[in-house]
Amino acid sequence: MADQKTREEANTTVPGLSRREFVTTIAGAGAAFMIVPRHVLGRGFQAPSDTVNVAVVGINGMGAANAHGVMSQNIVAICDCDLGLLDGKLAQWTRAQRPPARPQAPAAAETFKTWPRSKAQLAADARWPADDPYDRLQKFVSGQIPRLKKYQDYREMLDRQKDVDAVIVATPDHMHAIIASASMDAGKHVYVQKPLCWSVHEARHLAKKAAATKVVTQMGNQRHSLDDQRQGVEYILDGAIGEVREVHVWTNRPWGYWPQGIPRPAADNINTAQLGWDNRGVVQRLAAAMKGDFAVPAGLNWDLFLGVAPKVDYHPIYHPFNWRGWVDWGQGALGDMGAHLIDFPMWALNLGLPTVVETEATPFNGATYPDATTTHYEFAKRDGLPPVTLTWYDGGLMPPDPPELDGGKLNPGGGILYVGKKGKLLQESSAPPRLLPMSRHNSYGPPKERLTRVPHEEHEMNWINTIKGKDQISCPFDYAAKLTETMLLGIASLRANSKLYYDAATMRVTNNSAADQFLTREYRQGWAL
Predict the structure, then answer these.
(1) Which is more confidently placed, 167 or 2?
(2) Could you tell me which residues come within 8 angstroms of residue 299 by beta carbon, excluding any fewer than 6 positions away?
(3) For residue 358, how many other CB atoms are within 10 A of its CB?
(4) Measured between alpha carbons, how far is 250 from 252 in angstroms, rounded to an integer?
C-alpha cells in the first residue's frame, strides 16, 4: 500500500478522510485485513480487495453510462420498470462494434495556455491503469450478461438479490430518494445520478440516512471529478481574482434536449373548430393534438414508473426521456445542469444554503417547466468571506458577454463566470478554466494544486474504489444534498410564484408559508419514503 502515498495530498472542502489519513489508519491492521472474506464483514461491506457486486436501477440514458463505468466489477442485477428498454440495452451492448478513433479536435481560433498534469496526478493515474472501454464492454457481454438477473421492481430486487453490495440509481428524479433510501436501509452503498432527488425534504432525508448507515454514497455529477473543473476551484482558492461577490451560471437546456412549456395532453375531446388562434386557443389546440389512446408498451409497468408521483395516464410524450420537463417527475434544466454548474461556485466559495431565492420565468402552466428561467440566489457572508449573489440562466438566457473577451462571445451551451475584485474567471461547459483577459491567464500560470485528483477522472470508479478503501469519495451525499437543496429552492420559488426568504435551520420559508408545500411532496398511496 506504500504506492498510495505517491499522490500529493491536499485539503479539500468535501468531507472525508484524505488518502494519507486512510492509509495511516489502516496500516497497522496488516495485510491480512485486505483478504477478509465478504461474509465476515457483514451485509453491504466487503474487503477492499474484492470485486464489488453492483445492481443498476434504471438502465436507459445515464444508467447505461453509469453501468459501463463499473463493468470492471460484477454487475449482478439490472432493474428497470420498462423491460423493453432493459432488453434493448443488453442487445445493443451485445451487438456493439469497436467505435472508430475519435478525430482530433480542430485548433481554436485563439488559444490560451492549458497547464500540464502534475507529477502527483500522473503517479495516481499509473496506480490504476485505465482499461479499454470496448474491451471492458466485451468482457461484460460475454462474462456477465448470461448470468445477471433482471427485475422490474427494485423492491423485489433488494429482497431477493442478497449478493448485492452497491446500487446505482438512475431512474427519473422522482424515484431517486425512495430507491436510494431503501438501498441504504438494506446496507448497500449507493450511487445516485444527479439531481440527487426531487424535493428539499428528500435531500435532507438522504443526507441523514447516509450519515446513519455509514455506507459510501456518491451523486452522479461526473464533472465534480474532472481535473479541469477542480483546477477552476483552485484558481478561486488561490485568490487569482480576489474577493468574489458575484457569479453567473447558465445552460442552453432544455433547447434541443426535451420539450418544456407545453400543455398536458387533453383528457377529453376538444372541439378545435370553436377555438381561436390567440395564445389560450393555441395551447388548447396543442393539448388536443397530443390527445390519443396510447397503449402502454409491452414490458412497461406504468404504475412502477409513476411510483411516488400522482396517477397520470401513459402517453409517449412522458416516457422514456421527456419526463425531465414534467413537474411530476423531473426538475427541468435547473435540476439537469445545476448539479454540474452550480456545484463549482458552491464548492470554491464555500457557500452555505441561500437566504433569498427568486425565480423569474417565461409563462409556467404548472405541468411542464417554462421554456426559460432566471433564478437569483443570495448567500450570506461566512467564515470571513463576503456575501455572494449567484444568478442562474437557462433556455437560451445568458449573462452579458464580459468586455474582457474583446468582442468574443460566451459559449451558449453553458458555463460559469466568476466576478472578482481583481478579475474574472470563466469556465465554459467542460473546457479548462481561464482567467480574463487571456493575457492575465497566460501570465498568471497554474494555481496551486490543493484538491486531490480522481484517477482517470472516473466518477463511478471513484465510488467503487472508495468502497474498496482505495480512494476518497468525490461527491458524497452530505455535500450533494446541500447542492441539490440549493437547486430545488429555485424550483420552489418558480412553483410558488414568489420570492423566498429561507431559514435553512428550520427548512422553512419565512415570508410565504404557502411556499413550504413545495419543499416536499404528497406521496401516492402505497408509497412512502
Answers:
(1) 167
(2) 82, 83, 84, 85, 86, 87
(3) 16
(4) 7
- Kindly state the cell numbers that stand for 256: 434541443
Is 198:331 a contact under the CB 8 Å cutoff? yes
Average pLDDT of the chain?
Answer: 88
Strand order of the β-sheet with 53-57 is: 149-151, 74-79, 53-57, 166-169, 189-193, 217-220
> What average pLDDT does range 269-285 have in this prediction?
86
Mean pLDDT computed over 153-172: 97
**Strands 356-361 and 500-503: what pairing?**
antiparallel
H and E: helices and strands count for the chain: 17, 15
pTM, whole model, 2 decimals?
0.89
Residue 226 host element (H or E)? none
Helices 477-496 and 200-213: angle between axes, nearest 10 degrees: 170
Q: Taking a C-beta distance cutoff of 8 angstroms, is the pair 373, 40 a contact?
A: no
Question: To which H or E segment does residue 338 belong?
Answer: helix 332-341
Which is nearest to 264 in space by CA: 332, 323, 335? 323
Question: For residue 429, what pLDDT is reported?
Answer: 85
Cα dihedral 429, 431, 433, 436 in deg (nearest 10): -80
- Measured CA distances, 328 to 168, 305, 318 (Å): 22, 11, 10
Going 462 to 468 to 471 to 475, the CA torsion angle's sign is positive
Q: How many residues does the chain have?
A: 529
SS (H, E, C) 154-198: HHHHHHHCCCCCEEEECCCHHHHHHHHHHHHHCCCEEEEECCCCC
Q: 59-92 burial, b for 16+ CB within 10 Å, e for fewer?
A: bbbbbbebbbbbbbbbbbbbbbbbbebbeebbee
Cis peptide bond N-terminal to 447, omega within 30:
no
The confidence score (pLDDT) of residue 26 equals: 28
